[in-house]
Amino acid sequence: MTDYAIVEHGGKQYRMSPGDELLVERTQPDLKQGDDFLFDKVMLISQGDAVRVGQPVVEGAVVRGQVLAPERGEKVIVFKKKRRKGYKRKQGHRQDYYRVRVEAIEA
Q1: For the chain, which residues make up each domain, given as ranges?
Q2: Would the CA dihedral through 4, 14, 102, 29 be positive or negative?
Q3: Cβ distance 34 to 65 under 8 Å?
Q4: Three-class SS of residue 101?
Q5: Mode of pairing for the β-strands spanning 50-53 and 62-72
Q6: d(Cα 56, Cα 48) in Å, to the nearest integer?
Q7: What does pTM read for this prediction?
């Protein structure tokens, strides 16, 4: 069995194991490549046959990661319109992300 944890970050939940690479929302500004990234809202830890579920978080548990690169997501177009009223608005948005590699799950 592989060890994994379920973590909440940026309003989303992620399942992560040591060695995984994932894209998480940039909630801390100005982190560079090689900086440490700490996930402290660990909701579940599975190590072998033992499973610990938090209420809502597991006390004293953290997942350590390392920032591989800051990235930006694809552009999303937000278009609003009301017919026959002459109202239309077009706006674009690009979300900032960090690509993070999970180093260790500490419980």
Answers
A1: 4-106
A2: negative
A3: no
A4: strand
A5: unpaired
A6: 21
A7: 0.84
**Spatial separation of the C-alpha atoms in residues 74 and 67, rounded to whole Å:** 20
Neighbours of 71 (CB within 10 A): 12
Tens digits of residue pLDDT in 65-79: 999 999 999 999 999
What are the strands of the beta sheet with 4-9, ordered from one edge?
A: 12-16, 4-9, 42-47, 50-53
DSSP-assigned states of every residue in 22-57: EEEE--STT--TT-EEEE--EEEEEETTEEEE-SSS
Quote the CA–CA distance of 41 and 13 in Å, as a whole number: 10
Q: Return the SS3 of 94.
A: coil
Under a CB-based contact definition with an 8 Å cutoff, are residues 72 and 96 in contact? Answer: yes
Structural tokens at position 94 = 């690009």
How far, rounded to the nearest angstrom, does the alpha carbon of residue 84 sit from its chain's CA centroid? 42
